[in-house]
Predict the 3D structure of the following.
Amino acid sequence: MALHMWKSRSIRTHTGILVLMVMTALMIVPGVFGQTVPIPQIRHDLRIALHPESHRLDGRDELIVSTNGSPTLTCFLAGHADLTAVEINASPAEYRFSGGRLQIAIPKALSGARFRLTIGYSAVFNDSVPEMPVNTDNPGYGVTGIISEKGTFLLAGAGWYPQIHSERTAFRIQVDAPKGMVAVTAGRSLGRRTEGDRTVSEWQIEQAAKGPALSAGRYTVTERDLGDLSIATYFFEMTQPLANRYLDAVERYIRMYEELFGPYPFEKFAVVENFFPTGYGFPSYTLMGGRVLRLPFIITTSLGHEIAHCWWGNGVLVDYDRGNWSEGLTSYVSDYLYKEQVSEQNAAEHRRQWLRNYATLVDASNEFPLSAFTSRVDNPSKVIGYDKGAMVFHMIRQTIGEAAFWGALRDLYTEKRFQKASWTDFQLAFERRSSCDGGPCRLDRFFDQWVTQKGSPQPVLQNVQRRKNADGEWRVTGRVLQDSPPFDVRLTLALNSTGGNVFQTISLKNAETRFEMPSPGNPQSLQLDPGADVFRKLFPSEIPESVNSIKGADTVLMVLTGQAGADAKDIAGLLVRSFGLKNAGWISETELSPRVMKAHDLVFIGLPKDRTLVSGIPSPVTVEGLEFTVGNRRYSAPTDTLFAAFPHPASDNRAAALLFSPGGSLDVRTTMKLTHYGRYSYLGFQNGKNVEKGTWPITASPLIFTWQ
Ligand SMILES: [Zn+2]
């Protein structure tokens, strides 16, 4: 058979290493606390000795427990741990330990009292870690615990210390490790010292909202005091030269967010390097792989996102049962806000990108309401939780205004710090600050249609007409239509005329809304929602082909050409994995029939002999002979590479793309990078370095009317 399929079980969806997320211990050990009643207060005095050569830790936890009168106390600890002591007030206690559940009998005499519980244990943690994964679905690549010479990484969910469901948990943590190995966790550093061949790091967490994670490595620590707050980097040698640039940026972000939302909620903020690629935002620190930390744009993007999570997600906590609002809000006040600080054009382009992601990566089969979003597991969930979530905050801001929007966020942060908040809490906070007709606005319909319900409107312009009355004044009339059930939205109409531009806001409530607007001159064109201010489903004509068009396609066929040489199939396979393509297949160019072509989205690996297949590549990119040009720059070296997504040669609702190098053979490093440029239509690389990128312009759509 000419058409071959890649096994889909080896292919998972890719979401990009640079989008970081907040994790909670409860998400990693789902439901473990479900059956237990929280006890009022716990203090851990935890001593950990790390033995990297045997991947083992020895732990001893002295807990002061105030119980709630229950006859047993339940702890959670790694199921494979060996218990060396379980004592109550220094006497051996009765217990049962199975499946990670440690149930300790509390003597009757101590019921309801405070007592000292001692748990001694030993456990090996040795998950295998990826060196350079192709796929980055999960910010930790499924790793929950490893103790090694390269470093230590222990998520709360690994059960590295005894966890007890409590309303208030405080820790003192002492980590004893081989000389030079520094440990980091949440809370405040009490310092570190080296005694003989061991280094001891001490930490104190006054109020742990989430189970702490623990990292350790041969770090160089660079610290800076900002009043009561300490900021620090824990970097390995190769990243250390960036320490001060990171600290400058951390300081800038913290000041900016304190101004916007209120005081920073933790004692410190640290940027900690991990020894394998991760992207975690923990309370008071972020843990990123070195390769990521050394990427030039992380300081201006992901770092700020992680710091914003200190207020939203780690400061105000997420009520996961009722939907995770924190990624939408954090994206809005970081990634998006930084664009807005540059220019309104950049901000509008960012919003347009969210809408393109939604149109290309989400459909009826995978859409769900925002209230059902908990965390990013694939492309569609990322688009809903992050992009749609951010757009919802944008629309609230448009609806209630600047002062009410930022004021409500400050209120919520003040009232809900270290407590769970739900979408309803946001609704109430926004309502309280808003004013409509002399009283607070009712936002029930808004939250119902954007948070509780799924879906989106797809408004279109119809019957647009211009008329000049007897006095010589121009007027424009028309209708905006939307499908059922209709959304309640406010849209901007932008009219361009010979006498200048005018804008008018219209409110849509029903399937059809008529409008009429005066024009200062002869009307030239009319556009609906020119700034992409409303979450709506774009029409295909509003979406230029891009890397994402291929990533979101369901039946991609890799067309292997002779020009790409013997490695074409390997390169195609790499692209399939890094794009997270399901149901992808490959075929040789010589076997490509019109019927097969029409039924698939196509990626040409190398230049096809039949050049008409790639003749639809729009300006400013042209392919001639074995060269390509972008604008007036020519690329003909064997180390140059072009990727261009373009209209499919045989189908109106499919996409095509070309990956080619004038030298024939394609480079693995460049191929792996493509997935990170999702929104771009074309990309040019020289020696693996991106030198050209752009998106085809949009000139016609059902939301644009142009008079001839
Ligand atoms: Zn995030």
